[in-house]
Design a protein that fits this description.
single chain, alpha+beta, HIT family, subunit A, five-stranded antiparallel β-sheet, globular, HIT-like_sf
C-alpha cells in the first residue's frame, strides 16, 4: 500500500508504531506527540478521511472504535477515574491526518478548556 496517509502506512506496517491493540477492524497505537500521560490513537483499518465522510454503512465500525477505547481504558486502569475520547474534523477542528481516528487521553485531570486543571495522575 504505497501512498495514503501516515496511518495507512502504519496499518500496512510500512512504518513503525508503538501498537497497543489490533484486530481485524482497527489498530491502536501511542501518539508520538502525547497531550496527556496516556494518549492513544484508535484508527479504523478502512480509510475514511473525515467525520464528514462517514456513511451509514460505517455505523458498526465507528461504534467498534469506541468499544476499543473502553477496552483500552480498562486495560490501562483508568476507566473508573475517567478519560477523554476525541475525534477532530478538518483543519479548524484540529484534524492533521486525514484518516479518522479517536484520541484516547487519560492520566491527567481534564477540565475545560482542555487540560486547564492539568493534575497528573499515576497510571498503569
Amino acid at each position: 500500500m504505497s501512498g495514503g496517509t501516515i496511518f495507512d502506512k502504519i496499518i500496512a506496517k510500512e512504518i513503525p508504531a508503538d501498537i497497543v491493540y489490533e484486530d481485524e477492524l482497527s489498530l491502536a497505537f501511542k501518539d508520538i506527540n502525547p497531550q496527556a500521560p496516556v494518549h492513544v490513537l484508535i484508527i479504523p483499518k478502512k480509510h475514511i478521511a473525515t467525520i464528514n465522510d462517514i456513511e451509514e454503512s460505517d455505523r458498526e465500525l465507528i461504534g467498534h472504535l469506541y468499544v476499543v477505547a473502553a477496552r483500552l481504558a480498562q486495560q490501562y486502569g483508568f476507566a473508573k477515574d475517567g478519560y477523554r475520547v476525541v475525534m477532530n474534523c478538518n483543519e479548524d477542528g484540529g484534524q492533521s491526518v486525514y484518516h479518522i481516528h479517536l484520541h484516547l487521553l487519560a492520566g491527567v485531570t481534564m477540565g475545560w478548556p482542555p487540560f486547564a486543571n492539568n493534575k497528573p495522575k499515576q497510571v498503569g
